[in-house]
Structure prediction request, 225 residues.
Amino acid sequence: MTFVRQSTALGIGLALLFTVSYPASGHQQVDASEAAHQHVARLDGQPEMDEHAAHRAALATPGYSVTMQHYTVPNVALIDESGASVPLPGLLDFEQPVVVNFIFTTCSTICPVMTSIFTQMREQLGEDGAGVRLVSISIDPEYDRPEKLRQYAEGFGAGPGWTFLTGDGADIARVLQSFDALRGSKMNHRPLTLLKRPGSPEWVRIDGLANGDELAQEVTARLLN
Prediction:
């Protein structure tokens, strides 16, 4: 069954996009290698393609849908923002509610919005959300090594209970395939949030941008009650 919600995430998301701040040691300064990673210069005089067109389209699309899915967590070990190896099945099948999204640190459109929505959701949940584990998995493992993830996490005030993961490219590809989370390339990925109650074989799949209040309501209704 699919549930569709009309969302006010567009206005809130755009506001978040332009108010996100990063520490001086993190994203405030963009070096040449990062700029090269984000864009390919056009030397033939033609207009540069908007690499974030799909992301901007996602921001401009109101509402989100909710479906119930069965996924098999691949038996891979990823790397968290501290550089520690983390077996993914143990993290996602642990005895606590889990909320997962997929981001990459050089994304300047939906990823900072999605990360800020996680922050807002935590604030809305308050003490009720203390036992909810948040997991953000990078879809750009080549660039997003632990140091980059750590800087990104610090920029959004992520604290204990929120894990950022990268890893070997082949392992990340297995994860994305297992959760049907990528559409061709990182520039085409869509906003996606996954919720799982401890002991349940089902995942709640949220496609689209739910704002912080809406996501907190979904987490409360589906994971905490």
